[in-house]
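Postdoc handover notes: sequence design on the structure in folder B. Input tokens:
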């Protein structure tokens, strides 16, 4: 098979939105995604669902693939004719071993390209309000590894101590006492300002300041954890930290649901400053060989209403139309009914505007609205998940409304975390199936964790598992969840 190609992409140094537009675009079109542990998992959601995703570790203190094995993976996948993205934290050429991977690709005659990333050596101090250069104060910056392959300090530490520029040590937290000792011994003043920034470009960032004489004690007292960047020099005394704060700064949130929803909500929460964790991801299984579904679409002129109860259902419906080459003009005389604004928004992307939306976004209220709206002799087509609420069809049947209930997809568990305890500030649930999956796996919610959910059906599922304290998002979509959490945080702070 002809060679594929490899893109060496820098992911940036923290949250997903610090990747370049070019890097994100390559991820969207890859066949294989080979990634490090330090990247924001939201970036995985950029890749096609069909893409193979391979984690190769590369995190301090944890098991990771040997560099030689990573090189072999890149070459092997490219030789299969695949488009491979090698996603690396920070920048590939700043202690990222990108050069070693490119040497392997060149030896194997594999075409490659490089996408720079925002390096933690500059961005992490910057986000903590520390400039690595400053006019008339620091005219150079020196980026130094905090440990070598032999877990020792670089041999040129003496020359580093002699420079007047800013010193930035990466991967050096464990060796901080040795770094301090060597800098002082080789001429740096004990009063030299020092800052240690942990998780610098993430929600849970931490900056500890001091001097060469005090920084070790300060770091130990603050219980700083890796990854961390060490800045030593005159500029480390500055505090230019941003004064515009995001509404969910220092707020931790656990997100449950499908990967698509989790990625969308997770990105929204991250942009608002939250520290986001994911739990019990669900996956949407579309019924591809679905003769009943296809027959319904091909015979759409026999229906007066099409009912869609979720965003997933709406997307699958539109995808099926394209596969069957069904023109939306076929629906000229068909009305659309949906539960909420999120589902309506999906249809609007394709130029279809919902005719019926209940004021309260529940299956029951949609059923009541249809019972009032659908006239005698009219026929309804319901397109929804395998385990959709029976309340909708019961209401329609009780009102003698003719309908076909067609199952177009199923929700199944993708990743499960049995017997875990969620101890974040908030946890979100977007469906009853998500609630049941969470508790049936033995997971529990700590007393301090506030629960936010979408819709009355999800709320009923929570109550069935003994959760009686929760907030229901005003709108049945990710915007509603975000607004609810921001409101709750604002009330607590006020």
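Designed sequence:
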């Amino acid at each position: 098979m002809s060679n594929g190609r490899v893109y060496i992409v820098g992911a940036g140094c923290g949250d997903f939105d610090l990747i370049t537009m070019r890097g994100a675009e390559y991820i969207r079109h890859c066949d294989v995604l080979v990634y490090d542990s330090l990247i924001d998992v939201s970036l995985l959601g950029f890749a096609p669902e069909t893409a193979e995703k391979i984690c190769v570790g590369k995190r301090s203190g944890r098991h990771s693939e040997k560099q030689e094995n990573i090189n072999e993976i890149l070459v092997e996948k490219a030789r299969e004719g695949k488009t491979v993205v090698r996603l690396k934290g920070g920048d590939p050429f700043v202690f990222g071993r990108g050069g070693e991977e490119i040497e392997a690709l060149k030896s194997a005659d594999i075409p490659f390209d490089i996408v720079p990333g925002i390096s933690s050596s500059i961005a992490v101090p910057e986000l903590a309000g520390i400039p690595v250069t400053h006019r008339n104060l620091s005219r150079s910056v020196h980026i130094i590894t905090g440990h070598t392959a032999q877990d020792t300090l670089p041999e040129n530490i003496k020359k580093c101590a002699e420079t007047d520029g800013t010193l930035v040590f990466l991967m050096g937290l464990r060796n901080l006492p040795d770094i301090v000792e060597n800098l002082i011994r080789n001429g740096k003043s004990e009063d030299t300002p020092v800052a240690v920034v942990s998780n610098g470009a993430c929600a849970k960032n931490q900056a500890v300041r001091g001097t060469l004489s005090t920084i070790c004690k300060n770091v130990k007292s603050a219980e700083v954890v890796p990854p961390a960047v060490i800045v030593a020099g005159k500029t480390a005394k500055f505090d230019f930290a941003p004064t515009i704060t995001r509404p969910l700064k220092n707020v931790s949130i656990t997100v449950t649901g499908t990967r698509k929803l989790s990625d969308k909500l997770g990105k929204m929460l991250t942009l608002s400053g939250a520290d986001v964790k994911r739990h019990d991801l669900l996956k949407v299984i579309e019924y591809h060989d679905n003769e009943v579904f296809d027959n319904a679409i091909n015979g759409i002129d026999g229906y007066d209403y099409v009912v869609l109860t979720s965003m997933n259902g709406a997307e699958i419906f539109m995808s099926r139309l394209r596969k069957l080459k069904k023109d939306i003009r076929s629906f000229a005389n068909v009305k659309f009914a949906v539960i909420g604004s999120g589902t309506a928004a999906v249809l609007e992307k394709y130029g279809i505007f919902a005719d019926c939306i209940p004021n309260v976004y529940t299956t029951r209220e949609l059923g009541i609205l249809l019972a009032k709206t659908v006239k005698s002799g009219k026929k309804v087509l319901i397109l929804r998940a395998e385990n959709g609420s029976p309340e909708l069809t019961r209401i329609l049947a009780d009102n003698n409304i003719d309908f076909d209930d067609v199952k177009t997809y199923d929700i199944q568990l993708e990743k499960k975390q049995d017997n875990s305890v969620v101890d974040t500030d908030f946890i979100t649930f977007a469906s009853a199936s998500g609630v049941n999956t969470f508790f049936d796996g033995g997971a529990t919610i700590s007393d301090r964790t506030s629960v936010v959910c979408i819709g009355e059906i999800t709320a009923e599922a929570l109550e069935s598992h003994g959760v009686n304290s929760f907030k229901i998002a005003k709108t049945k979509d990710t915007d509603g969840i975000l607004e609810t959490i921001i409101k709750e945080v604002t009330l607590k702070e006020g």
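Context for whoever picks this up: The chain has 16 helices and 21 strands. Don't rerun without checking with the PI first.
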